[in-house]
């Protein structure tokens, strides 16, 4: 036969049950609602900031000043090209650029396996895009990129693909080189 609980044990049991219910409520109901509320508040604040940014378009004067500075930058770049004796748009300068690129590749032991024109792209200037294919080590390739970066010619390198053949070395490398002109 079970003995009767004392008054202290009854209050202890009731306190334990109430504490368990509060813990369950806080973990399963209150905390998820609080997190959802915080996420909703953050999203609302972000939306309000984005809306305010859209409403605060720069004044016409600022836009005109920015356009003026961009035009000055273009003039400086054109003067820089003239100083380097690069005549954008002339076949001779493009051929000289291609020759210089070939020399840089061959000088690093990276034979030119493919060099084909891929068309022209019009951005701020007209760019002639050539697809180059070669093979060599990764260190030779990084040295080539550093040399192209220091080039006196206006070049861009994009769409680099490096593939390792089944045998391991040398790497098969292809890239688009954009030449201004």
Question: How would you describe this protein?
Answer:
The chain has helices at 7-55, 60-83, 91-107, 138-149; strands at 112-122, 126-136, 155-163, 171-180. With 181 residues, it is of the alpha+beta class. The protein folds into three domains: 11-56; 61-86, no CATH class; 87-180, Ribosomal protein S6/Translation elongation factor EF1B (Alpha-Beta Plaits, 2-Layer Sandwich). Strand 1 and strand 2 form a beta hairpin. It starts with 6 loop residues before the first helix and ends with a strand. This is Type II secretion system (T2SS) protein M subtype b. Residues 37-87 form a coiled coil. It comes from Desulfobotulus alkaliphilus.
The structural domain count equals 3
Q: Could you say what the CATH topology of the largest domain is called?
A: Alpha-Beta Plaits
Secondary-structure element pattern, one letter each: HHHEEHEE
Q: CATH superfamily assignment of the largest domain?
A: Ribosomal protein S6/Translation elongation factor EF1B
Q: Low-confidence segments, ≥5 residues, pLDDT <50? A: none
Output the CATH class name of the largest domain.
Answer: Alpha Beta
Number of distinct beta strands: 4
Q: What is the molecular shape?
A: elongated
Could you tell me the strand content as a percent range? Answer: 15-25%
- The number of helices is 4
């Amino acid at each position: 036969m079970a003995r009767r609980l004392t008054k202290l044990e009854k209050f202890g049991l009731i306190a334990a049950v109430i504490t368990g219910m509060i813990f369950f409520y806080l973990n399963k109901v209150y905390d998820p609602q609080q997190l959802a509320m915080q996420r909703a508040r953050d999203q609302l604040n972000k939306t309000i900031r984005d809306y305010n940014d859209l409403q605060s378009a720069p004044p016409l004067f600022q836009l005109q000043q920015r356009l003026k500075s961009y035009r000055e930058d273009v003039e400086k770049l054109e003067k820089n090209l003239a100083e380097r004796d690069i005549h954008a748009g002339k076949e001779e300068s493009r051929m000289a650029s291609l020759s210089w690129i070939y020399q840089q590749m061959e000088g690093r032991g990276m034979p030119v396996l493919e060099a084909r024109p891929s068309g022209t792209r019009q951005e701020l200037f007209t760019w002639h895009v050539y697809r180059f294919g070669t093979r060599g080590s990764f260190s030779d390739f990084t040295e080539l990129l550093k040399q192209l970066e220091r080039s006196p010619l206006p070049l861009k390198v994009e769409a680099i693909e490096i593939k390792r053949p089944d045998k391991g070395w040398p790497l098969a490398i292809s890239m688009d080189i954009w030449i201004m002109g």
